[in-house]
Amino acid sequence: MNAPIIEVQNLSFGYGARPILKDINLKVNAGDFLGLIGPNGSAKTTFLKLILGILKPWQGQIRLFGQDITVFKRWDKIGYLAQKAASVNIGFPATVEEIVAANLYRQVGPFRAPKKTHRAKVQSALETVGLINKRKCLIGNLSGGEVQKVFIARALVNEPSLFLLDEPTVGVDLKGQEGLYELLDRLNKQWHITVILISHDVGVVTARVKRLACLNDTQIFVFDQPFDFLSSPDNLTKVYGQGMQTLIHCHQVNCKGRSFNA
Fold this sequence. Notes:
With 262 residues, the chain is of the alpha/beta class. The chain has one domain (6-230): Rossmann fold, CATH 3.40.50.300. It is built from 9 helices and 12 strands. Helix 4 crosses helix 5 and helix 5 packs parallel to helix 6 (174-189). It is globular.
């Protein structure tokens, strides 16, 4: 059996003297589509930054692709879409293909023009996200959903095996959100990219992901069947505490919604 792509063992971290993550354990296998949810302040973004090596844990171990993070060097295998990545200056004078190509700077080298192989990677990434016809457009002339797809293409241009996204649908309209979720589903199923997605949209994420991880009160709770979390008052209480009122609904034929208190 292959080693997990991500293995977190007994991880603890905090700011100042206050712990915000304590004894966290998590395994993410190749092909997973993991949703990461939790209330505001539950350290979801912090957890991703620890996985990316941006922050160092107080204690515990993180292994990426079978290697301890302290010696891991293949960061090109990991794509990352930061929170509010699409909040760009609409007057920034760069085209879509220029922004995507910029992520190949290590391959291209300083002060050098991209070669044919680099341009082919940019084209492939833009075709994947459905923006090849917008490659010459200025970034400021795109919609919110299109801008997010540009930054997804920017991550894809290095052909990552793992993709981490921090609330990619913020500021995107409903049509754009649906397009983003469909794209992530395609990347996971067809490109075989392992995906970790942070979102506050618990209902949508539960319907999209394969596994669900819930951060709250320094702890993590993992559900291999995502809908089990949403449909169980006990699970909701364990993660979010008492006083939750939940409405479950869907838009499929013969699907009946229901509600309960937790």
